[in-house]
Structure formats: C-alpha cells, structure tokens
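Hello, quick one for you while I still have it in my head. My current little project is about how a certain protein chain folds up. You're getting the sequence in one-letter code plus the fold written as tokens. Would you mind checking whether the tokens look sensible for this chain? Here's the protein in full, and shout if anything looks odd to you:
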Amino acid sequence: MRMIRIALGLVSVCASVACGAGLQPRTWTVDGVRREALVHIPDTAKTTAAPLVFVWHGHGGGMRISAWSFPVQARWPEAIVVHPQGLPTPSLLVDPEGKKSGWQQKRGEQGDRDIRFFDAMLKSLKEEYKVDERSIFCAGYSNGGMMTFLLWSVYPETFRAFAPCACVSLPVVQLSVPKPAFFLMGETDTVVKPEWMRETAARLRRLNKCEDAGKPWSPDTVLYPSPVNAPLAVLTHSGGHTITLGGKVDDIVRFFKEQLK
C-alpha cells in the first residue's frame, strides 16, 4: 500500500508540473452543471489561426492525469489543446456503480451531457480565439477513446482527424463518414481485449476504404493508405492498457500534422 501511495503521489506531482506548463483551468456551466477542463492557449491564438485538439481521459482518470500522460500541448505548443474533466459515470467493465469520472459511451446516455459539454467548449473557444476550423482534432484514451468515436459519429465534419487509443468502437456508435484516424492498441491489454481492438481496426479499415496492405510508418505503426483521403495508422505496442508515454504521443501529433498537408 505504501508503494501504491508513493506512486500515486509521483503521478500527482507530475500532473501538477504538467498543469503549470502553459495549462490553465477553465469552467463552463452546461445545463446548470459546472464543467471544467485544462486548456493550453498559444500566445498567438488571438491573432493567428491555431489548430485545436481535444484530449479525453480514461475512466477513473482526470484532466490533470490526461495533461501528464497525453501531453499533446508539449508536443504541439502552437495548438490550442483541451483536456476536459469527466463526471461520475457508470462503466460496465470497471465501475458499474458510476463512482469514478468518465464519459458517455453512446448517443442519449446521461442526457448527452458530454456532447453538450463539447458543444459549449468549442463554441466559446471559437468566440475567444482564432481557431483554424479546418484543423480540429480529437483524441482519447480508453473510455476517452470511446468518447472520441462518439464525436466522430455525431460530428464527423467538425474534425480533421481522430486518435482513439486503447479502446473499441461500439456497434451502436454508427461511423458513416471516412476520416483519417490513428488507432493505438496494446498486445497485452487485460482491460480491453486485443481481439476486440483488432476487430475495431478492421472496421476502421473497411470504413476508410483502406488498401489491404499496409506499409511501415514508424517502428511499431502500420499505415493503411486510403483512396478517399482517410488513411488509418495502427500502432501496436507490447504493453497493456496504456498509451505508453512519450514517443507514442509524438506519433499521434505527427499523424495529425500530416493530415494538414
């Protein structure tokens, strides 16, 4: 238990450091409920059109852990980066009573409170800053990856590309518009079974009309070209239920930037 407390303390310290690195807390009131996020705003965002990236944490996580473990703001400081905070939400796999923070998984759940939260954030950021509306991206880990898929299904034309990580796309979440996507999975994931994620990757290849044969894109990533300009990059690492720090986020940012060319 002592080692666990020490580990959690180190995570908390690292998260606090990340919060101090150009991230500011923001709040919105959505349907009478206070919602919050950590937001990185480039110094030039008032005068120069900036990319916008939403990063959704996993179930039981939070915006501070997301800012530390999925540090898009450090890899792409020219972008506006938003790490939203979830509310207590049931999860059939890990939290059926809904005691921990998370996101709705399909349309209509929780009164669509998280979709409405996204709407409020996007509206206010576009009003306050010069957002490049052709360069809006969405990424997420685990339950946050499922939120990413949900936003893909609801607002496909809003986003340039997506990066759902360590998650599955539920059949009830209908994806109908091909979009560039970066999909990450772990070979030893014990929370989201690798076979489920392989089926999700196959579903994305079909949706994006990708070529059957992929080509190496990074040491552990295969890129499947698409004749409809919706390439799919599939990164398979040897770890478990994690995005693995550092280089994997670099790859996601690289992929997002490539979609702007």
Summary: Helices lie at 2-20, 63-69, 72-75, 113-128, 143-154, 194-207, 247-258. The longest strand covers residues 131-141. The first helix runs from residue 2 to 20. Confidence is low (pLDDT under 50) at residues 1-20.
